[in-house]
What we know:
Blueprint: H1 9-33, H2 38-59, H3 68-83, H4 90-112, H5 117-136, H6 138-165, H7 175-184, H8 190-198, H9 207-230, H10 234-243, H11 247-259, H12 262-289, H13 299-305, H14 309-327, H15 335-341, H16 344-357, H17 360-388, H18 393-398, H19 400-446, E1 452-459, E2 464-470, H20 477-488, E3 494-500, E4 516-519
Parallel strand pairs: 2-3
Antiparallel strand pairs: 1-2, 3-4
Helix pairs in contact: 1-2, 1-6, 2-3, 3-4, 4-5, 5-6, 5-19, 6-7, 9-10, 9-12, 9-16, 10-15, 11-12, 11-17, 12-16, 13-16, 14-15, 14-17, 16-17, 17-19, 19-20
Amino acid sequence: MNFTDRETDWSRSQTIDGTAIASAGALILLGSLLNERFALLVGVGLLLLAFVDQRRLRRHPAGIGSWLRPIAFTVAGIALLVFDPDSTGSGGVVVGAALMVVGLASLWRAVRSRSNRSENVVGALVAFALATLVLLFPSTSLRGVSASIGLVLFGIGFALIAMTLSGRIGEDGRPWQAFVLWIRERQYSPTERRELVDTLYFVGDDASARLTRFATLLLLAAIIATFGVAADNVAVVVGAMLISPITAPIMGISAGILLGLRRRTLLALLTLLGGGVGVVALAALIGAIIPSFTLERNNLVSTFASPTLIDLAVALAAGAAGGFATARRDVSNSLPGVAVSLTLVPALATAGLLFQTGAFAFGVGALLDFVTNAVAIVLAAAAAFVLTGFAPLRRIEESGQSVRFGLGIAILVVVLVTIPLAWSVEQIIERNDLTTGVEVATREWLGEDSGYEVLDVSLLTDAVEVRLAGTGDLPEVNGLSSQVDETAGRQVDLVVKVIEQKTLVPGQTAEAAPAVREATPA
Length: 522
């Protein structure tokens, strides 16, 4: 790479590129936050990216396949600006199609050129995964994907500007190389790195004592978490999160992948799996001996057994914070906050309780929550280790194949778990829309002068239940059933429960308690 201090047309050109990339990232990020301006902001951002790509291709001419990406950005940007689609329907199709073409362009470059082949293959896989997610679940994933892309672009653009102005990136430099140079300047000394690595694994003379402490704390955390979930007590579960040491082997897996420490990575993985199986088994045993234990109407069970994309986002942020706090001793006091953000042991305890009661489907959901947290931490902590300089780029390059394999597996698992998480969010949105629609339809059916009010609307296994309370006559239930079917866009089994209210005054007695009757459509 050539380094220069000269103020040339090239330096101004690189600064323009960096400004355009950072601006595109900011617009896409803002568009993901402002739903009503999504098409305008994201469309302009895509056109800016197309502008940068075509400038780069004019400076460094390449094959026709290299023009796929700027063409995709241009077409998608114009489509968003002209047709102004919403961010949950056709907007997802436009963005998803653009990401798919970007993936094809990266794959083309990987096939045609040996240089940066691994980088292009990874880029293609990520683009394909994001495109699939956006196309399948536009209403739940598009804004999150857009926000993530926007943040990455803003960071790359800012780094390119900083490195160009400081004269630390040469004429053949590309945006990604600005990040590489910035990271290279943030390296640990070999002694510091060795000391930190030794704390992440149960090796050395004190390995047995450290492993015993780990097992003891994990055992206590599992007991506390199990009783906390069983009692539906959030405070108790938080206590279990605070004392749980299970994030230690996850950080070891992340560091081991980056540093090419295969044996230690395997050791950390076995520690995590063994600890996880132990927590599930212990929770199932406790569930079998707790008297009159039931999981019905347990809010914590519902939370841990039904993870969503929000859980994935929290795990990524907490994993990055945990990696940063692990690599930087001066902020290690933040680790308890990271522990509270992660639902590792509570999710395992919930899975054990659910398996013991025979609710295997929900137990698998709780295990999915654990896997989501663990894999997200591995990826996010790896990024933090690289950015802090704990994982030197030279070491990563030397262990390139094993690093790509390990991170590739982690990325694949994240993509795979994202699909059921997005589906779960879709189901939640669908249920909320249905209950809200049924409540509105019920109020319209009752009319303004009705003596009844809607207490609640709930979804049963195979029907929708509406509970009413009041006095007087009710309209025909068939009319409500028709309105509900129209609102849902399909036939819905409806159950209406009516509580007839009575007014008592001193000295009077009621012949019977308020009558509860059930009305169903004919």
